[in-house]
Amino acid sequence: MQLRYNYRVYPAARQQAALARAFGCARVVFNDGLRARHEAREAGLPYVSDGELSKRVITEAKKTPERAWLGEVSAVVLQQALADLNAAYRNFFNSLTGRRKGREVAPPRFRSRKDGRQAIRFTANARFRVLDNGRLRLPKIGDLMVRWSRQLPAAPTSVTIIKDAAGRYFASFVVTTSDEPLPSVDVEVGIDLGLTHFAVLSNGTKVAAPKFLRRAARKLRRLQQNLSRKQKGSKNRGKAVLKVAKAHARVADSRRDWQHKLSTTIIRDSQAVYVEDLCVTGLGRTRLAKSVHDAGWASFVGMLEYKAARYGRTFARINRFAPTSRTCSVCGRLGGPKPLDVRSWTCPCGAVHDRDLNAAINILAQGRWERLNACGAQVRPAPVPAPRREAGIHPGATRSTRSAEGITALGGGENVKASI
Fold first, then answer.
1. 277 has catalytic annotation
2. What pLDDT band is residue 401 in, cutting at 50, 70 and 90?
3. Which of 83, 91, 85 is nearest to 109 (CA)?
4. Residues 270-283: pLDDT tens digits?
5. Nearest to 265, CA basis, from 187, 197, 379
6. Helices and strands, counts by H and E, the chain
């Protein structure tokens, strides 16, 4: 499978200027291609093909005085910018026709130089390489110093240079790996995600919600107030914006690191993991929106999914409409609605349930049931071969005769009418 390995890079001042030039050229090519297709659509002309678009906004544009500076950067960077545009159009068209599952995808939009995140991509055609001294050599940029937190498991097929809103630079390598599966364990776990406890496991383990954004709210509030006092367009405002971005990046990094550690522990200790398919987008529109986004359920579930595939574990999502909180995990009785303030309840069978733990146990049972059915368990009665005289139709027989023969074969008309 293909994985991304991210490393922090530290370009020199001259290299930062070269990267800024590459970011700008890639952005201009992307916008030129998008504008060309918009103009063709408004004029009623056919859709501009990928090859024609590349010829128009790169090859021919370099020969004009207005776009001659496109030749100062690697041609692969420009081609990859158009590849991103073409992929965005394909996703949009597939979403309209229903070939792409999930939420609807919006059409591509113009890129802005004021965006906090800028990125360019180099493929193998660009002949980038990692030198023996640990530096990353990029065409027309130079040798970048990389902080190698771990070794690459294989030769990378592409590298993306990213500048985030906090002004940090990263190198993201795409590597094809084939990891050995982890040793099998006889443990399966269901996970109920929440706000009071970030995760409650079916084995009784409760993981407290770290609430990184809530803990940093006081500092963020002070920085936002300081930013609001700065005059728009001034250098001091730019410095204040950078401080706010760094504070948010620190929160995001802390959350990501904590989720990686927790997901790795769960995948290592469990052979199968089942979670509920939560509608995070819908929950993000409620009064709990800030807490929902602070929890980061979607990113955590994504980590569980790809790590399970990487290490030979089973991962599955159960239906979000399954009544896991209302069903008794002991007798299976379906109770009434349970508001969020009800944290424990008693079933008529006498079992006293913790709301989250009961839901985690039901998620485990539901996940096992769906997985066994999907793996070939017999859900319906097996097909039985029909008797010889029932298998065919006699050409000379009338409809009433065939019906009578069918009723006789079933055991007589009286029995059939009685069963109906």
1. no
2. very low
3. 85
4. 999 999 988 888 88
5. 187
6. 13, 14
